[in-house]
Design a protein that fits this description.
Blueprint (H helix, E strand, L loop, with lengths): L5 H24 L4 E4 L45 H4 L2 H9 L2 E4 L6 E6 L2 H10 L4 E4 L4 E6 L5 E5 L2 E4 L5 E2 L13 H6 L30 H16 L5 H16 L7 H13 L4 H15 L2
Antiparallel strand pairs: 1-2, 2-8, 3-5, 3-7, 4-5, 6-7
Helix pairs in contact: 1-3, 6-7, 6-8, 7-9
């Protein structure tokens, strides 16, 4: 008799689905909202009944909404801790197709700083307080206690996943979890505070900081300024918000030790002006970044 070649794959899929469901149920018992993710870490699409928000729930996935679809709909908003839903026929079918388990960090009061490359990891180590770290395929997840708005590409290779977002479950990690720092919260701001009008000059105040320099080599500073220029130059939309967030990132790393010079600031201002920002806007954004960080 000819062997059924589909049987091993079917068993493998079934076993993986069972493993994913078992992990999901363990997390749900701990109060972590979970959902299945497809191969490639993408969410399952809305069902036909809920396509294009015809159900009236969770518009643009930005609210919980009234939808009670039995399927795995609405991406991150589908995440649940209810074992009856996780074990329902529609969800079991999704678990069998799932590539991994996802969870909603903001739903359990957490923020994941997703670092996608070695340069981003170096930035985090030199800028952020140590916290629980979990390795990923390309980098690391730094997990903090505290929720905040999510934001993608706040810096090259850096995403923030918290409220209204999902992250891949990669394990609990072993390090203590630190409180969410203001430096991470500031990166997700889309608009600076009310601008304080400043003279239209290219030279910007550095806040008079002269603490001990934490940077063992000027190469780190040069790399940081180059990354900031790249972030501004690569902005395709929301340029003003990108400039402000980039200034925040630079100042959170280099603003307290006296490393920054007028030459470094001029490089950032020049990159911003090349994207259409005025000198006044640059100066206002820099001053507001200083104020936000207390410099």
């Amino acid at each position: 008799m000819t062997p059924d070649r589909k049987t091993p794959r079917s068993r493998t899929t079934h076993n993986l689905g069972y493993d994913h469901l078992r992990t999901a149920l363990e997390l749900a018992r701990a109060g972590v909202p979970v959902l299945p993710l497809r191969e490639g870490k993408g969410p399952f699409g809305n069902c036909r009944r809920c396509a294009k928000n015809a159900c009236g729930g969770r518009p643009n996935m930005k609210s919980a909404g009234p939808c009670h679809c039995p399927g795995v709909c609405h991406a991150w908003a589908a995440a649940t801790t209810d074992p009856n839903i996780l074990n329902s026929p529609a969800w079991v079918a999704a678990w069998r197709q799932a590539g991994c388990v996802g969870y909603h960090p903001g739903g359990v009061g957490l923020t994941v700083v997703d670092l996608d490359n070695p340069t981003a990891i170096t930035w985090a180590r030199d800028t952020l307080p140590a916290t629980r770290t979990v390795p990923t395929t390309r980098g690391q997840h730094w997990i903090y206690q505290g929720a905040m708005p999510s934001a993608n590409a706040v810096l090259p290779g850096v995403d923030i996943k918290s409220l209204m977002a999902y992250a891949r479950w990669l394990g609990r990690g072993s390090s203590p979890m630190a409180a969410l720092p203001d430096a991470v919260r500031a990166l997700a701001l889309t608009d600076p505070p009310a601008a304080r009008r400043a003279p239209q000059t290219l030279s910007a105040p550095l806040g008079g900081q002269s603490g001990e320099c934490r940077h063992r080599t000027p190469v780190f500073l040069d790399r940081g300024i180059a990354m900031a220029e790249q972030r501004i130059t690569g902005a395709r939309e929301a340029v003003h918000a990108t400039v402000y967030r980039t200034f925040l990132a630079v100042l959170s790393t280099h603003g307290r030790c006296g490393c920054l010079t007028d030459a470094h600031t001029a490089r950032l201002f020049t990159a911003a002006q090349a994207k259409g920002e005025s000198v006044r806007h640059c100066t206002d954004a820099w001053t507001n970044a200083l104020t936000t960080l207390g410099l």
